[in-house]
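new request in #modeling-help
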Amino acid sequence: MPKYVEVEDARTMAGLRLVLSPGVPGPWSEAAKGIFYVKKIPYIPVRQKMGGDPALREWTAQDSAPVAIYNDERPRSTWIEQLYLAERLAPQPALIPQSAADRVAMFGYANELCGENGFAWCKRLLLFHSALTAPGVSQDALALTRALAPKYGYDAARIEDARARVVEILRGLSARLEQQHRRGSRYFIGARLSALDIYWAAFCAIINPLPDELCPMTPQFRETYTNRDPAVAQAASPLLYEHRDFIYHEYLELPVDN
Ligand SMILES: N[C@@H](CCC(=O)N[C@@H](CS)C(=O)NCC(=O)O)C(=O)O
């Protein structure tokens, strides 16, 4: 586990601080870590308290993770701001494509994965739904779900829409990757690594986490993250999982350290 600093101490430090949820390979957090790792940008890991963190709220005006805070600049609590910060601090290797057409494609797909009502957002709504409706869910898991569900817009009436969105996005990404392979590229965009490859590698955890030796997590979290939804399972092609493995093995830190 990285040496986490508490929020109160991190506030007084300079440099890049990255607030993360210890022990949890959250998709947004792992993606931010991956982007900083590829660019060799060092940061101080800071502990977020999942389910409500008043100290983090006081510092960053919200209490989700990840948040990137560079010196006395404004806290960056969304994936897109974090990507632009990383690109500014270390322009090479560039993770935002050079050509406008490639940028449009990359940010479009990235928003489908990382944005509000995107893949992970909607899959999280499905996870809340299972926890709140299935029998035998532990008291701890229920308490966390009850704390997070309203924060991220859970509404039982909209669960079918959320499922359809997850399926649609997985199919779109699968089709894109197949097309790229036919063109002779192993990457989502053009012929080289972009942030989208890292986003997918990290976000895949929310349906199919890497094995425990590569990505340790509590059995409860592994159970929660492992997809049991048949429609979602069908939409995620083997090529998408192979791509996740390729990106982790070629570019990212293994085992995942959280
Ligand atoms: N704000 C991020 C998304 C961050 C996010 O949703 N974080 C979740 C990860 S599941 C979180 O911190 N949940 C725990 C909590 O809210 O206490 C973005 O829009 O890029």
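bot summary: The chain has two domains: 7-89, 100-251.
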